Amino acid sequence: MSFGVLGCSFSLHCFVRRLYMGKVKKPADIGKLLDVGAAVVPLLVTVAHEFITVPMLYNKGFPYNLEQATQALANNGLKAMPIAVSMSEANIKYRDCCNFQVVDSAPKQYSPIRRGSYVTIKYVTQDVIDESKRLFEEMNAQKAALKRVKSEKRTKREQTQRVGIKDGIGKIIPHRKNKKHNRDED
User: Fold this and answer.
1) DSSP 4
2) What's the pTM value of the predicted model, to 2 decimals?
3) Facing residues of 120 across strands?
4) Distances 36 to 6, 17, 90, 99 between C-alpha atoms, Å
5) Among 120, 135, 175, 177, which residue's Cβ finds the most Cβ atoms within 10 Å?
6) Strand locations in the chain, DSSP E?
7) What is the pLDDT of residues 82-139, one digit of tens each?
8) pLDDT at residue 140 above 70?
């Protein structure tokens, strides 16, 4: 009998499917199923007690601070390993965070993990938040400068086109005043 991930048996699955479809009719085959089931159930219960899921540690709408995340891990039988986000990792996505807010974890929240394992918690400090705000303002200033340059180029191009159109129309269709002056000169 082969067992797959977390004690699931592919041969058991196939056997149950065959039983459901009516292809298994012998009492001996049903006895095999009961033997296999008796062997699998304690294994699944043991595996279920060893693994738990990492609790929710960060959420954009409801920020968790380092103390709350550490407490949530301890309540679930896990150990916290807090790591601060470094200044080189400052990013505009951290500009709206609060001091000691948890932003990431390894393994990710809701992942299965063995009871008693360490979970790395990444949190931001005020220095990183300030640097993130500076980066955001700098990015907005660059966007505004680029927008201003594009606007100036567009205005210049439109003015050049207007002058070219006026000159072209004047050459194609002379004004009446020009006709009178041209007749007087003849």
Assistant:
1) -
2) 0.57
3) 81, 106
4) 15, 14, 54, 54
5) 135
6) 51-53, 79-84, 102-106, 112-114, 118-123
7) 999 999 999 999 999 999 999 999 999 999 999 999 999 999 999 999 999 999 999 9
8) yes
